[in-house]
Amino acid sequence: MAVDLAGPWQRTGPVYGDPRLAPQRLGQQAFQAVVLRAYQRRCAVTGDRIRPVLQAAHIRPLPAGGEHRLDNGLLLRSDVHTLYDRGYLGVDPQYRLLVSPRLRDEFGNGEQFYAHAGERIALPQRQGDLASPFFTAPHQKYTINFTGAPEGTYDFFCLPHQALGMKGTIIVGHPGGPGSTINDGEPTPAQVPPASD
């Protein structure tokens, strides 16, 4: 479709399409209310207190199994929330701001975030309200016992950290068994054998 920009642009015709039903996300308003209160109505990254643009973000997204829980929430300004969900921003296990190089590479922008990279984000005052510490940093490894899971190697990531190149590998099995090597063929770290009943 060619657009003539010599004069003012105007699209003629209907403004709205056919009405459609969309499923409503249950619990979002309650989640928003408790996250707003825990973070004292301040964006965890920028400190902004402009209520209409503050949103309760899920650390682990709902489609990936996340829940409406306070320890799965961050209060973020709407643009920061979008950048977080799309993997341009993240948080490490010490609650420091991570900024993906993609922000600069793709948009030539984001200096206000790069200026604060590595700084600790604002956290709720009550320790019990702290966001979940299960963030991952590059090359960081965790050992978790998955008793009863089928043997094998499973790669995983969460959306906010995927763009930062962060992923995890879960290895289920005994050394030398089917799940004994990481995808690149590197020997696994010490494995925890399944617990016996």
Short description:
Helices cover 17% and strands 13% of the residues. It has helices at residues 28-38, 78-85, 102-107, 111-114, 159-162, and strands at residues 54-58, 73-77, 89-91, 97-99, 152-156, 168-172.
Task: Please characterize this protein's 3D structure.
The structure is a single chain. This protein has 197 residues and is α+β, with helices and mostly antiparallel strands. The chain has 2 domains: 28-129, no CATH class; 136-191, no CATH class. 17% of the residues lie in helices and 13% in strands. The protein has a two-stranded antiparallel ribbon. Strands 3-4 form a two-stranded antiparallel ribbon. Strand 3 (89-91) and strand 4 (97-99) form a beta hairpin.
Query: Reading side by side through the largest sheet, how are the strands ordered?
Result: 1-2
What is the chain-wise order of helices and strands?
Answer: HEEHEEHHEHE
* Large-scale geometry: extended
User: Which residue ranges are poorly predicted, with pLDDT under 50 across at least 5 consecutive positions?
Assistant: 134-142, 178-197
Give me the count of strands: 6
The total number of structural domains is 2
Distance between the termini: 68 Å
* Percent helix: 10-25%
Q: Which class do the helix and strand fractions yield? A: alpha+beta
Number of separate helices: 5
Mean pLDDT: 76
| Sheet of most strands | 2 strands, antiparallel
Radius of gyration: 22 Å
Report the portion of residues in β strands: 5-15%
